[in-house]
Amino acid sequence: MTSTPETLTPGAIGARLDRLRWSGSHLGILLALGAGWLFDSLEVNLVGSVIGPMSEHFNATTEQSSRIYWVWLLGILFGAIAGGHLADRFGRRRLFVATLLWYAGFTMITALSISLDMLYILRFLTALGVGAEYAIINAAIMEFMPARVRGEATAAVMNFWPIGAIASGLIAYLLLNTFALASTISWRYGFALGGLLALIVLVFRRTLPESPRWLASQGRLNEADAVLRRLEEKAGIDSEAPARADADEPRPPAFRLALVELVRHYRARLALGCILDLSEAFGYYGIFALLSIVVLPEVNYTDAEIPFFFILGNVGAVVGGVAMTLAFDRIGRRWTVGIYYTLAGASVGGLAAATTTGSKVWVLVAFMVANAFATGAWTAAYPTFTELFPTHLRAAGIGISVAVGRLGAAYGTLYLPSLAADIGPTPSYLLIVAFWALGVAAIVVWTMTGGVDGARKPLAAVSSLSSRTTARAGVPAEQ
After folding, report:
1. What does each C-alpha distance from 474 to 204, 268, 272, 319 come to in angstroms?
2. What stretches of 111-149 show up as alpha helix (H) in DSSP?
3. Structural contact between residues 453 and 334, judged by C-beta atoms closer than 8 angstroms
4. b/e per residue 333-346 (b: at least 16 CB within 10 A)
5. Nearest 10 degrees: Cα torsion 98, 104, 109, 110
6. Cβ within 8 Å of residue 241, ≥6 positions away
7. For residue 353, what pLDDT is reported?
8. What is the pTM of this model?
């Protein structure tokens, strides 16, 4: 059976994806991408749980410990840019496998570090793979899901992050409380185990199809149609039934041309993505760096207790992320992002107040609340700006937004702990609040200038609505 001309065009392929009923194929894609995100999180959060004994092993100062986060975030910066370009150029599926092998391999090699310099280099190399994942996973889940569930499905994938953080805390807790392992070397086993576990995801990722939207943007319509036929069969949809065509997508350009096109024609959306990511990355990573390096030792958390602190803190993150997911499509992107960014900033003020008490319990409770709102904020931000970019520029747009965010976060995690060690934690907390406020300002401006809310709208419709509303607001149309 062959497709009709009406169903075998780039625009019709996008419409066919949106009309699909939820099926086991969608669930499999969500779980496979979510599992990858889980292990990305496990890799990231493992450092926060073991940075105490790791710093002790290398006799690291506060500044040297902060640089572990700094090089990590710089690696994510460059990895996000490269991954975004490569995913738009060569496809989502190839990068799924390549990035997983890359960061799992370097995670395991990190366990063999014999000096701080070697550790810095290996953390940077590992982060290149994780940074690429940011662009690829967000682009892929956005492009597979029907419009009516796109927001919830994308947010659900993002919420695998706190689950991975809990898993990393459990691993670190078991290692640091196992008498057979000295605390100064237990971190090595954590990295080795984390890398091995990440390879499990490879089994599921190899079965994932290529994004039909990306295939269509490459002119590979027959391949896109074949993927869609399998999805339609699972969903019980007639492949031959005509679908109302969306606008066709151009081919992904070279990175330099993609950057020029983004800045020239999509600058409002790119600015929103960069500011939202800068705000949440500084706020989220800043809290973790400040707590793990300065605050928790000051309130007398031991190295063995710190993983348990982060486990409970990420239980709060799961609650916050799930609550955001349930509200995301119901109240819309703009309201969800604005509310959660505001509450994230306010909760950091509560964490600052708890820190002044010196109470381990109050710091834990305040962190659970702050992490709940921070997780809800960033898991709302990613799908909000991801869906604003057209298919041929989506991964590049995500990559650039993530890169800007990690640049701010890198220097935040480098200087916030040192600032807190010198003059107390309060100024560092105030800086974190200021960055959350920056994200609130960005979404307010986006809303007031008529920026589109993409909840339950087809991806092509989100793009066209953005063009019209920004044009009415006096900004050149973003075709």
Report:
1. 47, 12, 17, 40
2. 116-144
3. yes
4. bbbbbbbbbbbbbe
5. 120
6. 7
7. 96
8. 0.85
